[in-house]
Write a structure and sequence with these properties.
α4 crosses α5. The protein has a four-stranded mixed β-sheet with strand order 3-6-4-5. Strands 1-2 form a two-stranded antiparallel ribbon. β1 and β2 form a beta hairpin. The chain is α+β, with helices and mostly antiparallel strands. The longest helix has 23 residues.
């Protein structure tokens, strides 16, 4: 009798122990928050979710951050130029814009640009893609003749596919006939 009561008692304890709610195990490193004054010294590995982050990765992240800042600063200096209807000739009022850009690009050769040619909605898709490419190439040729390395310039045509103004008026069309300059990393 004592033996069966003992087994019953042990069974009940095991039953309650087995039904108890279990907490998910979280590694100690994730449960303890690092205090600001406990920052790791420069060059020491920093623990991340995937393990230690080495000095090389920290330097790469810092380089990427600096490159993004340079691209943002470059983008602030860039200005669109505009074209007349059915033309890829650089307009006289846009020549100072391109000269200023060429002077800057000649001194800062780390900057890479993509020149995007755009058109208004009139004309076929194929025609506008070709015209947009000619507009981008015209700006590139001007910059190269002004001393900018051709290796730092790329071109692409968006034709009428990405208008800046979706209106159907002459004012809207004039805004869409443009070259847009985009800095790259």
């Amino acid at each position: 009798m004592k033996k069966s009561l003992f087994l019953l008692f042990v069974s009940i304890i095991l039953l309650f122990y087995g039904c108890a709610s279990k907490q998910a195990s979280v590694p100690l490193s994730e449960r303890i928050a690092r205090q600001p004054e406990q920052q790791a010294p420069v060059g020491a590995g920093v623990k991340g979710k995937e393990g230690a982050i080495g000095e090389e990765e920290l330097m790469r992240a810092e380089r990427e951050k600096q490159q993004k800042a340079a691209v943002d600063a470059a983008s602030a200096r860039l200005q669109d130029i505009y074209f007349d209807f059915d033309s890829y000739a650089i307009r006289p009022d846009d020549i100072p814009v391109l000269k200023k850009m060429a002077d800057w690009l000649a001194t800062d050769q780390a900057v890479k640009l993509v020149i995007e040619g755009h058109c208004d909605e009139r004309g076929t898709t194929e025609y506008n893609l070709a015209l947009g490419q000619k507009r981008a190439e015209a700006a590139k040729d001007f910059l190269v003749k002004s001393g900018v390395s051709a290796k730092s310039l790329g071109t692409v045509s968006y034709g009428k596919e990405t208008p800046v103004d979706a209106g159907h008026t002459e004012d809207a069309w004039a805004k869409n006939r443009r070259d847009h300059f985009a800095a790259q990393q």
